[in-house]
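Email to the structure team, subject: Transcriptional regulator model.

Hi all, the expression group asked for a predicted structure before they design truncation constructs. Nothing fancy, just the tokens so they can compare against earlier work. One-line instruction: predict Transcriptional regulator, return tokens.
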Amino acid sequence: MDSFEGIIEFVTVAECQGFTAAARQLDISASHVSRQVSRLEDRLGAALFARSTRSVNLTDAGQLYYQQCKELVTGLQQANEQVATEQVTLNGTLRISAAGAFAEQFVAPALIEFAGNHPELSIEMDFDTRMTNFIEDGIDFAIRYGQLADSGLVARKLLDRPLMAAASPEYLEQHGIPNHPDHLKHHSCLVTNNNSWQFEMDGKPYNIRISGRWRSNNAHAIAEACKQGLGIAYMPKSSFLDALEQGDVVPVLQPYWSRHASSWIVYQNRRFLPLRARLAINHLLSHFEHWRE
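Reply from the structure team: attached below.
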């Protein structure tokens, strides 16, 4: 069991990029962290960090070791939390940033259920599409959709949400049915977050620049404009559920729909999430495990 000593300190130093910051996170002295890591290096016979007066960086051996050890530490933490949930009452305030109709219709009810199971916990949901500053805004995690920027944040897939193109029967009768994504250049498209739509052709992404006279970052507004015949919309199928059931819109371009769009849970560092955030994330993952568009 001695071989496990120093691993938590090592992983924390790697994630905090410094011994002092790691000591603050672990609430122990920096000298203790340094001794534990040094002893670990001695047992392994390899340097895990390249130290200088200004920085602490993982060596090649340290990087390989970190990739393995971080899963061990996460697994241990999750095991501890599983036991703790039987004995601990969650309290404090859980702050979540979300965006889109899916978060309003489906994520919020799941979190309301979670709140009902923890009566001493407060939850604040901020429905905003802007980029979240987790530290300044005090956000525990965010729900985001689509392709994520490489921000260094942790992203866990909540579920796949394939896209669907649709238009009203009246619009298609007046303007014709597009049979290829290129045909959208001659159609009025309902613009959401950008002017580029990604389809799939022969298993590869196929991007088309579109334009139209209705733009909104709200899925309800896009779906309504689609029902009223203002153009072609391209969103997750769940955004059209009511309109599809009532026959107000019909699918188009089905062979080219992108199947790889997803909703994500995004947060900073999995090692330092408060227990209430970890359990809320686990609740969401379990809730949507078998959910399909």
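The domain at 92-160+262-287 is CATH 3.40.190.10 (D-Maltodextrin-Binding Protein; domain 2). The chain has a mean pLDDT of 87. Ping us if the truncation boundaries need rechecking.
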